[in-house]
Amino acid sequence: MPETSNKSWQCPHCRLPLRKQQQQWLCAQNHSFDCARQGYVNLLPSHKKHSKQPGDNAEMVQARSRFLDAGFYLPLRQQLCTISKQYLTDAKGAWLDAGCGEGWYTSAIAQSIAQLTAFAFDISKPAINACCKRNSSINDTGFVSTDMNNTAMDSTVRASSTALDSKSTDDELVSNGSVEWAVASVADIPLLENSQTMILSIFSRIDWPEFARVLQDNGIVISVSPGSDHLIELRQAIYNDVRPYQVDKTLNELPDYIEPIELQRCHFEIKLKSPSEIHDLLAMTPHYWNISPQQREQLSERMHLTTRVDFRIQIFRHKPSFPTSGIWKNLSNKGNVSK
Ligand SMILES: C[S@@+](CC[C@H](N)C(=O)[O-])C[C@H]1O[C@@H](n2cnc3c(N)ncnc32)[C@H](O)[C@@H]1O
Ligand SMILES: [Zn+2]
Fold it and tell me: How far is the CA of 12 from the centre of ligand 2 (A)?
């Protein structure tokens, strides 16, 4: 077996490293996984699927792609590029985007820390398809072409985030930061133990035992979750009684082997200027599925909506000297996130 170390996927059947040979990923026990023509590999065994088409469906993926490509969340992406660069200036090895959606954040961050190998997976096939499509649209000028057409930014996004880098458009420059894409689950990450320097989790599920298994000692997790004012005006348009978002229990009750090291905020205002933009934002949120057809109808009659977005960016560290195999799932969940 050639040197694969931290730069390879792991076989979901026997846990040996996979190596790429032409259009297949193979392990030493001859389990093989075809690369789809779009460029990803499916490492989610069918017996581990809880439904026929797990994760976000094509409609949700398309709505989120349209919304993100319009640039409404660009300040968040730029802040994530800046943080990744700050934490990983001298780092080598690999990093992972777990639950990467359409890869809108992944590709830009991969380019800003191009010295590391990037892995990204999502349980949704339509989402991973969209990642591959997006990657193939990165053009020769070094920019993601979909963002080049973005006219929404100037007039609609007013960033008030304190950590924004004034030269942040540099973060969009492409070097050779390509990404390995896969269909897989956060509950069973197809990567080797101690192989990752960073895991990114944006509005996605965190599985601490799995994250700790694949993270190196002192490896970091960057998590993005909603702050209390997130989409507050959108929620006021839907509900009579709007409560602040609660911090997710997974982020508040940390296991012993995970240490919180930093909390940053990113908040700004977005102006949606058409029913279709309002629809796309709504379709990205759980509210879309919670409201009645009547409420959806009411919202669809609105021509514009200005709403605050409020993101909590939390950075955690994997404490060294915890055992690296076998018992992760049994470790107790204790501790608190510092505010
Ligand atoms: C709210 S979206 C966020 C996507 C992306 N990180 C972003 O911010 O644009 C959550 C994503 O998690 C994926 N997902 C849900 N359960 C998952 C699991 N068990 N493993 C991996 N991905 C999962 C969904 O398919 C969806 O793409
Ligand atoms: Zn195998």
Answer: 7
Tokens of 280: 């796309």
What pTM was computed for the model?
A: 0.85
CB-CB contact of 68 with 53 (8 Å): no
Task: Tell whether the torsion through CA atoms of 79, 131, 192 and 172 is positive or negative.
Answer: negative
Nearest protein Cα to ligand 1, atom 8: 202
Q: Residues with Cβ within 6 A of ligand 1?
A: 55-56, 64, 99-101, 104, 122-124, 127, 185-187, 202-205
Domains annotated on the chain, with CATH? 1-35 (no CATH), 40-336 (3.40.50.150)
Rounded to the nearest angstrom, the distance between the alpha carbon of 314 and the centre of ligand 1 is: 18
Residues 72-101 have pLDDT tens digits of 999 999 999 999 999 998 888 999 999 999
Tens digit of each residue's pLDDT (9 = 90 or more) over 130-177 = 999 988 765 333 334 334 333 333 333 433 333 333 333 333 333 467
| Pure H helices in 180-306 | 208-214, 232-238, 249-252, 275-283, 287-290, 293-300
